[in-house]
Amino acid sequence: MSEDYTTFFRVFSQVSKAIHSGESTTEILENIVTNIKEILGAKGCIYWIVDHGTQKIETMISHGFPYRNLTDVDYETLNQIFDSEQGPLIYIEDAKSDGRIPELDTIGKKSVGSIAGMFFDIIGSTAGILAVYFYNRRELTISELEILTALGEQGAIALHKALSYDEKMLQNLRQIVEGFTLALEAKDEKTHGHSVKVARFAKLIAEEMGLAKSEIETVYHGGLLHDIGKIGMDDDILERLGILSRKEM
Fold first, then answer.
1. Which CATH architecture is the domain 2-164 placed in?
2. Where do the structural domains in the chain lie, given as residue ranges?
3. What are the per-10-residue average pLDDT scores of the chain (249 residues)?
4. Contact 78, 58 (CB under 8 A)
5. I want to staple 113 with a disulfide (CB 3.0 to 4.6 A). Which of 136, 200, 223, 243 is the partner?
């Protein structure tokens, strides 16, 4: 196991450097699942990124034997297999006979023995699920669990950093959109407040339609900016009643 620890520390160092150097989260997760498989001598490894708010699987990165009975599951099935309420570690001793594993691929189900799964908080409703599976029945040792936990947490850290950066960029975008709206409202005093009202009504409709949070926000911003073309128009065109000429159009 000392050789495995040497490999682990090398991989841990590589992942840490990748996180701080701004390497893409996909590349970092690919590095993690690849090395977990090699270090533990596993048949394969999978890292899911799930959003419990929208109840969707956002990303799935895998390496090794293409175990479709896990890689092809939907959000609901994934959470039935790896139920966080059962504890921080889910151990499936014999996947061949375990009813939690769906028979999406009969041959594949017969090819996997034990499965171990862990959970990692990332940010908000976003979380990570890491699973490693073996050909035979096998229970992880304490040292192997430590390796799995440490590398899984590195993946969560990378994703937390990326999502936090995305949120900061969104905040900057919101400020820019609001700035354009203020400029638009100042352009025509007669319609002051119109863009905000349109945005609010559009948001209410989007919420009633059951759209995702990100989609609702996009609709709201679209409402704020729906009259953005007025900024470049002459005041006499905006204020004049009647039909525009061909040239003005």
1. 2-Layer Sandwich (3.30)
2. 2-164, 188-239
3. 55 57 73 84 90 89 88 91 86 88 76 88 84 89 81 76 57 64 64 78 89 81 74 65 68
4. no
5. 136
